[in-house]
Amino acid sequence: MTPRPVLVDTDPGLDDALAILLVLAHPGFALRGVTTLAGNIGLERTSANAGALLALAGRHDVPLHAGAAAPSVRAGIDEAAIHGADGLGGVALPAPVPARTGSAARFLAETLRTEAAGTIDLLCLGPLTNLARLLEEAPDAARRIGRVVAMGGTIREPGNVGPMSEFNLAYDPEAADAVLRAGLDLTLVPLDATRRVRASRDTVRDLLALSSPLARKAGEIVEAYFRDAATRESRPLHDPCVPLQLLRPDLFPAETLHLRVDRSDGPEAGRLHVDPTGAPANVALGADGEAALALFVQSLR
Predict the structure, then answer these.
(1) 239-275 b/e with 16+ CB inside 10 Å = b?
(2) Which residues form the Inosine/uridine-preferring nucleoside hydrolase domain (predicted)?
(3) Which of 39, 127, 188, 191: disulfide with 11, CB 3.0–4.6 Å?
């Protein structure tokens, strides 16, 4: 397998952390850098969490750059109740690789300009603020992205922050709108797909039984994911669906939909509307949950 060059934009976050561990563990990915933003929790903490995951994998060589500390124009959404005050449910990690100087958008632009156009894919695990800034500040570099795969939105599933609004897009609807209209090769992996890829307590057992330190740490993180949901039998692996979709798009049946982003205030903010006048995107509308979960565990071996 020829490794796929990728950049990861993230706000870890329990499920972000699982996606990052998958990228670090799987030989199909060549990680070119990580950028962070506030989202699930504040920027200082998300950057420290990303740096700690890199340190766990011994990847001090991977550039880490902090980005947007707030949404484009509105107040953020605090998800500490789900992810814990440290963003990772109290799971112990080593001292983090420190973030380097220079903005996330500038780092993304410089990295994309150093390699042939279309050869680096961007995995967006959080709100789309950093990508929107790249589009504004360096549109020529943004056009060099191969594929953008982003976890966000919902089409038919109920939302998780509003009746039909999902956190990543609701956090910064203006950024989501700018990305959607930019004409990038964009695949959205919404709740319609991610809620079908679910970890159980058996998943925790399987991961903890593996010899890989990354797999065992993933097991601890999934276990932490259950702490605020002690009576639930499974938890959705939202963000890991992004690298899984790149590895096996056949597990995530998709359609091209024309979409617009609701930029109103209130519970509709960030909602995706199917609209023939909207911008086209490849949208995963389901998932083979059992196969995707098996690939997740196998990837962490």
Answers:
(1) bbbbbbbbbeeebbebeebebbbbeeeeebbbbbeee
(2) 6-291
(3) 39
CATH of the domain at 158: 3.90.245.10
- Render pLDDT for 45-87 as a digit per residue (tens, 0 to 9): 999 999 999 999 999 999 999 999 999 988 766 555 554 578 7
Q: What is the pLDDT of residues 95-120, one digit of tens each?
A: 999 999 989 999 999 999 999 999 99
Question: How many domains, the chain?
Answer: 1
Q: Which residues are catalytic?
A: 238
Q: What is the 3-state secondary structure (H, E, C) of 125-162?
A: CCCCHHHHHHHHHCHHHHCCEEEEEEECCCCCCCCCCE
Domain that holds residue 218: 4-299
* Alpha-carbon gap, residue 53 to 87, rounded angstroms: 12
Q: What is the pLDDT of residues 206-256, one digit of tens each?
A: 999 999 999 999 999 999 988 766 677 899 999 999 999 999 999 999 999
* Cα distance between residue 217 and residue 93, in whole Å: 9
100 strand-pairing partners = 65
Question: How many other CB atoms are there within 10 angstroms of residue 71's CB atom?
Answer: 22
Strand 29-36 and strand 4-10: pairing? parallel
CB neighbour list of residue 278: distance below 8 Å, 6 or more residues apart: 180, 258, 259, 260
User: From the centroid of its chain, how far is CA 155?
Assistant: 18
Angle at 16 between CA 14 and CA 21, to 5 degrees: 100
Q: What does the alpha-carbon distance between residue 191 and residue 197 come to, in Å, rounded to a whole number?
A: 10
**pTM (global) more than 0.85:** yes
Inter-residue contact 60 to 95 (CB < 8 Å): no
The whole-angstrom separation of Cα 132 and Cα 130 is 5
Q: Which residue type is seen at 271?
A: R
